């Protein structure tokens, strides 16, 4: 397994669109992403990530042997939480269950902790997304609690879990 994270390139738009244009993935992400997800949508996203504030947005392509298979981002929070960041991620469905996402989460956390003053990274997966919860646990995150009735997704009120990892 040769999982790496790297900055986005405009040429990644085809692989990004191929992976994200999937309702099984969209059902586990926050709302706001277009579906179907096109190469134009992917290019817009990549351009936004490349032009974002480099001290607040850490957005990476996840690659397997050089091929883009997913996305991971860590986003610094504001005000008194400026040393805390939220993580979001997904990986193409055909790559699920191989440990790739866990490795990418570890790589992203290592990068942020080694290169910034951020001391806490958190993620809030839907409670029903046991695979995402397992990824976080295997990457060293601790479940800090359940956020009851915290979101409205696909016509349902759902719980989320709060996971976090703190810089050692």
From TrEMBL:
Q: Which domain of life is it from?
A: Bacteria
Can the keyword Amino-acid biosynthesis be found in this entry's annotation?
no
Q: Where are the transmembrane segments?
A: none
Instruction: Give the UniProt keywords, A-Z.
Output: Transferase
Which PROSITE patterns does this UniProt record tie to the protein? GNAT
Which terms does the record give in the GO molecular function aspect?
Answer: acyltransferase activity, transferring groups other than amino-acyl groups
InterPro entries attached to this UniProt entry: Acyl_CoA_acyltransferase, GNAT_dom
- Extract the Pfam families matched here: Acetyltransf_3
The N-acetyltransferase domain, residue ranges: 3-165
What is the protein name given in its UniProt record? Protein N-acetyltransferase, RimJ/RimL family
Q: Which organism is this entry from?
A: Eubacterium uniforme
């Amino acid at each position: 397994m040769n999982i790496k994270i790297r900055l986005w390139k405009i040429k990644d738009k085809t692989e990004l669109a191929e992976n994200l244009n999937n309702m099984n993935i969209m059902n586990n992400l926050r709302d706001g992403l277009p579906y179907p997800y096109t190469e134009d949508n992917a290019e817009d996203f990549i351009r936004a990530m490349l032009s974002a504030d480099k001290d607040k947005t850490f957005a990476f392509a996840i690659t397997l042997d050089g091929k883009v298979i997913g996305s991971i981002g860590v986003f610094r929070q504001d005000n008194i939480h400026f040393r805390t960041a939220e993580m979001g991620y997904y990986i193409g469905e055909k790559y699920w269950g191989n440990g790739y996402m866990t490795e990418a989460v570890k790589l992203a956390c290592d990068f942020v902790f080694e290169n910034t003053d951020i001391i806490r990274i958190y993620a809030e997966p839907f409670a029903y997304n046991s695979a995402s919860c397992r990824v976080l646990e295997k990457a060293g995150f601790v479940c800090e609690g359940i956020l009851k009735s915290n979101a409205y997704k696909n016509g349902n009120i759902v719980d989320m879990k709060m996971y976090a990892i703190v810089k050692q």
